[in-house]
Amino acid sequence: MKPIRHVINIQSFSRDEIDTILDRAAQLEPIAHGTTSDILSGRILATLFYEPSTRTRLSFDAAMKRLGGDVIDFGPTEGSSVAKGENLADTISVMGGYADAIVLRHPREGAARMASEFSSVPVINAGDGAGQHPTQTLLDLYTIRKESKLNKVKIALVGDLKYGRTVHSLAHALSMYSAEIYLVAPDELRMPDSIKTNLIESGIRITETKDLDDVVGVVDVLYITRIQKERFPDPGEYQMVACSYKITEDTLKNAKDDLIIMHPLPRVGEIDPGVDKSRHAVYFKQSFYGVPVRMAILSMVMG
Ligand code: NCD
Predict the structure, then answer these.
(1) Are residues 297 and 274 in the same domain?
(2) What count of Cα atoms within 13 Å lies in the side-chain half-sphere of residue 85?
C-alpha cells in the first residue's frame, strides 16, 4: 500500500516536490479556466471548516469539480455534531469512510497534524490557527513564479507576521528559493523568533522594519496581510494595531515598475481599491491561481 501523503506544513515538501506541484498546476490551468476533466472522477473530497472561509473552501470545491470529482461539506459547525460536543478525532475517523481526502481548517494550531494521526485518508491543512496554511503558500509561490520571479526574489512580508499563518508558511518556503526577505510589522506583530531562526539558519538575509516606505522601492513583491483580529486575546490590543498599514497609489510612487502586490485576502482596508487597476495589483489573479494549484494538490493526494 502507498503511504498516505498528508499536507500539513510546507517544510515537509522539498524544493523539487514543490516545483513539481507548480509545474502540474501550470499544466492543469487550462482546465481551471473552464473545461472539465475526469482525472478525479468517482473521488470524494470532504471539506471541514471550523473557521470562516471563502476562497479556500470554494477554490477546493471548484478544483475538485473541474477534475470530475465530488465534494461533501459539513457546513457551519453549528449544523454538525460538533455542536453536540463531538471531538475532532471522532469526526475525522468517521470522514475516512465517506471521502477519499479531507480538507480541514481549524482555529487550533496543530489541529491538522492531530487529525492526520486519526485519518485513514489524506488530510490537507487549510489553516490551523496561527500555525500554517501550506496550500495558500503553494498558490502564492505559483503567483510569484508566474507574475514575477521566484528564485532570489526580494520580497516584503507586511502586516500581521505574528498571527498570520499565510506568512508563516510562505517564509519557510521562500527559504528554499534563496529569497531576500523584508519583514515589515509593528513591534507587537513581529515574526516569531522560531521562524526567523529557521530563515537565518537556511542562509536567508532578513531585514526587519516597521516602516513600509523603507522597502517599497527595493522589493519585487509586496505581500501584505490582514491583521488577524480573531487571534487577539484582548480587543484593545487589536485596536492599537488595527490600521498599521495601508497601500495607496501614493505609497507606490517609488515602487519598481514590475513590483507586484499580493494579498491572501480578505482585505479589510490594507489596500485602497484605487490600487486595484494598477499594473502592480495581482491579488485577484492570485486568488484564481488557487484553483489550478489546488487541482495539482488534489491530484497528487488522490490521483
Ligand atoms: C487567509 C487565512 O485564512 O489565513 N485567508 C485565505 O485563506 N485566503 C488570510 C486571512 O484570513 O487573513
Answers:
(1) no
(2) 0
